[in-house]
Design brief:
With about 240 residues, this protein is α/β, with parallel strands linked by helices. About 45% of the residues lie in helices and about 20% in strands.
């Protein structure tokens, strides 16, 4: 049984969502205070977190940032704010999706299922033993350039011999771009190929993920023969020299 943690200070929202999720076979835990959310997470060990932005004690963005230090569990932000900048901040903190209030519980449930399908596919890839895969296929899952490699079997990124931590979606985006060097992809194409048709987000999501990847792998003080380049009015490409 999948477990969901609801973090919202509105008791009526928690009550309604609890009914919907339990009807769909989820085990539901709830927390109404931001400063107790991390403790609730540790106790519940949920498979997904529905996290309100405006909370007493500690806001949703701070909670999201703290959760990302200890877990890659999917997080969907739930908030009354609808400005693009608020969505971007949530995504930069590590949220997987963003739902604005008021919302239909069925829509939220659909997004939860979509995010969890992607997460389950990622987890399945991580758990595969490299010894179980044919050697010829395994080579297709490792991209190597001078001083850089991304391994989609082990879910490991190496830069100059150092392992770089990346959440699954960042790694998958980097792998896709690096697998197609010097080819320009629009944001919509990247959403389709990396997130899939069931993703409910927007193209700004790609910008946020590319920014985070660049911060981790690119060094302006060192000459590199590769980089993720922005092609203005088009999208992005993994450029090699």
């Amino acid at each position: 049984m999948k477990k969901v943690l609801l973090v919202d200070d509105d008791a009526s929202i928690i009550e309604v969502l609890k009914l919907y999720f339990e009807k769909e076979g989820f085990s539901v835990s709830a927390c109404m205070q931001g400063d107790k959310a991390l403790a609730s997470f540790n106790v519940a060990s949920p498979d997904i977190v529905i996290l309100d932005l405006m909370l007493p004690g500690m806001d949703g963005n701070d909670i999201c940032r703290e959760l990302r230090k200890i877990s890659d569990v999917p997080i969907i932000m739930l908030t009354a704010k609808t400005e693009t900048i608020d969505k971007v901040v949530g995504l930069e903190m590590g949220a997987d999706d963003y739902v604005a209030k008021p919302f239909e519980p069925k829509e939220l449930l659909a997004r939860v299922k979509a995010v969890m399908r992607r997460y389950d596919r990622t987890e399945g890839s991580e758990k595969k033993s490299t010894s179980d895969a044919p050697e010829s296929n395994e080579s297709d899952e490792v991209i190597t350039y001078p001083g850089f490699s991304v391994d989609k079997v082990k879910y490991v990124v190496m830069v100059d011999g150092k392992e770089i931590y990346m959440p699954p979606k960042e790694l998958e985006l980097l792998f896709f771009l690096a697998s197609n060097p010097n080819r320009v992809f629009t944001r919509e194409q990247l959403l389709e190929n990396v997130w899939g048709y069931d993703f409910y987000g927007e193209s700004r999501t790609v910008d946020v993920h590319v920014k985070r990847i660049r911060e981790k792998i690119e060094n302006p003080n060192r000459e590199q023969n590769w980089c993720i380049k922005t092609v203005w009015s088009k999208g992005y490409k993994f450029e090699t020299k």
